[in-house]
Structures are given as structure tokens and as C-alpha cells.
């Protein structure tokens, strides 16, 4: 199933947050999707207003039985979200995993045994 997409543009004012949350809820309910992709590329410089918006959108999506995934977010926004303790699923981000089975790390002569 294709996730619903909500494009976030321009610096969002506090007055616009409720409308965007209503739109997010409506898109999740209309599509029946479990994920709402929030295209954050047009949000502008990251700040606490963007953090507040994304936190409220995540809460709205969870109340509707889904979650949000960020697309095209500024790296500074990721850093700010991490700083305030919010984590979001990010579209296109590679997960860190253990090395594949059968792959061994190189050992230098003289390294102590583990």
C-alpha cells in the first residue's frame, strides 16, 4: 500500500499546526495507510516550531493508528530532533546492522586475543 504524503512548506506558524494535524488525520483515515510520509524539505531552517509541528503530527498519527515518516528533512533538523529526544523514521535512511554472516574483521599481528 502506498503511504499518504503530506508536504510541509515554509516556516509553519503556531496557528497552522492544528490545520496540518487535521489534514494528517484525514489523509490517514481516507487512505487507510499506516504511515504518513511528511515531506519536510520545504520547512526552511529548523527550529523549535518545526520540532513542535513534527511532535504534534506524530501524536496525531498515533492516535489515528499510524505513524509518520520524514522525507527530505534537513540534517540540522535531524540533529535538533535528536537533541530534544524525538526519534522519527526517516525515508531512505540505511539502518546500521551487524556485518553479514561469514564476514570477519581484519586482525593485525600482535593484537591481543579477545
What's the SSE blueprint?
Layout: E1 4-9, H1 14-31, E2 35-42, H2 48-63, E3 67-71, H3 75-83, E4 89-90
Parallel strand pairs: 1-2, 2-3, 3-4
CA-to-CA gap between the ends?
47 Å
Low-confidence stretches: none
Q: What multimeric state do the chains show?
A: single chain
Secondary-structure class: alpha/beta
Strand-and-helix sequence, N→C?
A: EHEHEHE
Read across the widest sheet, the strand sequence of neighbours is: 1-2-3-4
Number of helices: 3
Attribute tags:
four-stranded parallel β-sheet; 3 helices; about 110 residues; single chain; about 40% helix; 4 strands; alpha/beta
Structure description:
The chain has 3 helices and 4 strands. By secondary structure, the chain is α/β, with parallel strands linked by helices. Strands 1-2-3-4 form a 4-stranded parallel β-sheet. Strand 2, helix 2 and strand 3 form a beta-alpha-beta unit. Helix 1 packs parallel to helix 2. The N and C termini lie far apart (47 Å).
Summarize the model shown.
This protein has 114 residues and is of the alpha/beta class.
Amino acid at each position: 500500500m502506498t503511504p499518504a504524503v503530506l508536504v510541509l512548506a515554509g516556516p509553519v506558524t503556531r496557528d497552522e499546526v492544528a490545520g496540518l494535524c487535521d489534514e494528517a488525520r484525514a489523509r490517514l483515515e481516507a487512505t487507510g495507510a499506516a504511515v504518513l510520509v511528511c515531506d519536510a524539505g520545504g520547512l526552511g531552517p529548523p527550529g523549535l516550531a518545526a520540532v513542535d509541528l513534527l511532535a504534534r503530527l506524530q501524536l496525531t498519527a498515533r492516535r489515528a493508528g499510524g505513524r509518520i515518516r520524514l522525507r527530505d528533512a534537513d540534517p540540522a533538523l535531524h540533529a535538533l530532533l535528536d537533541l530534544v529526544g524525538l526519534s522519527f523514521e526517516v525515508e531512505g535512511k540505511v539502518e546500521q546492522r551487524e556485518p553479514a554472516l561469514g564476514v570477519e574483521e581484519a586482525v593485525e599481528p600482535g593484537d591481543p586475543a579477545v
